[in-house]
Every structure is written in structure tokens, then in C-alpha cells.
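Morning, I've got a small favour to ask if you have a moment. It would help a lot if you went through both lines with me. Thanks so much in advance, here it is.

***
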Amino acid sequence: MRYAVIPALLFAATLAVSGQVQTRQPVPAFPGQTAAPPPAVPSPPIMVETVADGLDAPWALAFLPDGSCLVTENGGTMRIVKRDGTVGGPIAGVPPVKSIAGLGLHDIVLDSAFTQNRTLYFTYFAPPKGEAPAAWPIQFFYEHVWRPSLAERRTMQIGTERVARARLGVDQLRLEDVEVIAEGVERRIVMARDGTLFVTGADRYRLYDSKVDGVEHEFADDPDIRRNFSGRVIRIHSDGSIPADNPWLNRATVPADTYAHGLRDPEGAALHPVTGELWVTDHGPQGGDEVDIIKPGADYGWPDVSYGVQYDARQPDGRKNVRVGSGRTSRPDIQEPVYYWVPDIAPSGMMFYTGERFPAWKNNLFIGAMAGQQLVRLVLNGNRVVAEEKLLTSLKQRIREVRQAIDGSVYVLAGASLVRLTPKN
């Protein structure tokens, strides 16, 4: 293991901007919706311990009862990292995974009764029937899938987003009784207080008339297109059955598991420790990364309304800041984000801190940033962000995941490493 003490002044380094040119500065809907000031009292110096190196595109982690970590790797493997940093071999029994662009093996969450039933839940992208599991070049998805007509795209057998549950064997060497319990989503899983599962899924632009970064027209003619194919949050029971109070059960043209829609790529999710509400991070296109509070039946705008614009690099005519959908950043029927960023930080893992090791962080919201190469600390007053602090910038690593351990320390996946944060005594 390696240790380092990083002073708070280094944590406050300037945001690392991605390579995209982002000149459009949207007007916030309310004060404090973006660009919050640093906290009056910054975080104290923190001990940063590299627990394990050499992981292969790690995506998520879950803490086992013995304090070790169960880690997913995007290419399709699960491993256990012990408390002493020993990295185990691939766990057997993981179903075939297709890793392509932003798709692969993603989140993993233990059942609330894991010590009794050894049940866990995970999300992944499954290859089509007859195709071997493999990692595919990113250009296949963004060029070969994006460019054809909608009719051609709808006949392509690319793969399927899935949610599965399984049991971890007593020897911790294999998954048993793997069962698919939902399809169409494959990002984050959160177990609600009532035992139901929230699962987030990215925009499936390939299945409707859109592109990876939106289009220059509205979808008002058929709102069910966005309800079905934009990024969604679904809500299911732990066996995959549908809760009787889901919001769209009386509309036959919307999937029964749908809880909210209009997201683009919600790669972070967590329950608020006080209210129990689901909060998510959502990737914008070029600009417009968001933090949203998810409400039943609510619409979050994509791809009609966004604080971002289409990618400059994807405009064949050289235009800049091309609008998304209507070009509006707000609309009365669209839920406003709690907070947004322009330029992008590429938000991923998300956590409310509830431990005792860092008293000043109590109930603060933490978000991993990949393009931003930082751990973002958001200080809240109710549902409003009042301060933002940029942590771990000196690591110069993409922060994919952030989780609170049983002892109140914080673990992050930074690049290929598992890193532990504790207060410097």
C-alpha cells in the first residue's frame, strides 16, 4: 500500500477542463444552480492510501461484510480486493458481457439481507445471441451505429442492457443462480428504503430518431418516444416484478417499470440520508452535466431541454454550440436540476457521506468526475448547493466511483487504482 498526505490547498486546484471547446454559458434558473463558491472552511488534509493498483477499467465497488471490496471491471470481470490490497482472480459465473463505448459490466449492490441470503444485484450489457463476449472498438458504436438511418438501426443486433441478481458463493469464487430481472437499463442500482430497486439507464438513441448528442428538433409530437428511449430510472421489486404504485401503469404505451425519464446518461445515484429521495448525476452532451432529484413520473428534459449543446467535433459543417432539441434550458413541465456544470466534469459515482470519520462532511454530496479528474464535494442547505470543493485534483486521475466504508473511511476508484481516504491525524 502507498500513502500520501495531500494538503487542502492542493484540493482546491482549478477545474481540469476537458478537450472540448465550450463557449456557451447558459443562464441558470435560480441562484446557486451552478458555479457555487468554495466552502468557507475547506476540507482538512487527508491521508490518501492506494489500496490496490492495476485494475482493468474498474467501474463500481461494494463492501463485503469482512471489509473487502467486490469490484466490477467494465470488460466483464468481478474481483475481490481484500483489505490488505490483495487482488483476487476473476469470479466465475458472471454472464457474458459486451464492452463497447459506455457499455459493459457496471454497478454492483449487495442486498440489504446479504449476510443471510448472499444475494447481490448488478448491471451489464449482454451481447446478442450467438455473439461471444468481447470488447469492441469505440468507433463501432459511435460511427457504425450512429450514422445509419433509424430503420437500419432498429434491425441491428447490438446487445441488450440488463439487470441481474445472483448469489455469491460461500467461497467467494463464483456467482450462483444468476437471473435477469430487468432489461433496457444498465447503469446504477440503488435499493430504496422500502426494498424496491431503482436502476438508472442511459439514453438509447439508437432506437429512436436521435444521435448520441441529441438533434435539432423537438419530440413534442409523441412524448412516449422519450418516455421509452431517453435515459430512464426504473423501479422494480428485487425479483423483477413491478410495484403496484409505479407512475405509468395506466399508460399502456410506457413500460410498466418506468419511474422517471428524460435523462441522458445517469452514471451516479444515491439516496438522500434524510429525505430518502433518489438523487442522480447525469452526463450532459457538451456541457450541462447535472445533479437531479428523481420524482415519480417526472420528465428531466433530454433530448428536448438541456443546459448543454451538441458536440462541436461531430458537426460536419463546422458549426459551434448547436442546440439540443428545442434549444431551451428550462420549461415549466421539466424538472430543473439541483445543480449543473458548464464545462463538463463527466460525473460518475455518487455518495452522501453519513459517517463519523469526517465530521465536516456530514450529509455532504460527493461525486466522482472523470473528465474533471477530481472528487467533487457539494455542501447542501436543504436541496440547494451552497458550496463546491474540488478534491483529489493532484492525483490527475479519472474518478469513476466513490463509496463510504463501514468504518466511515471513503474509497474511490481513481483510474486503475482503488484508493482509501481517511483524516490525517
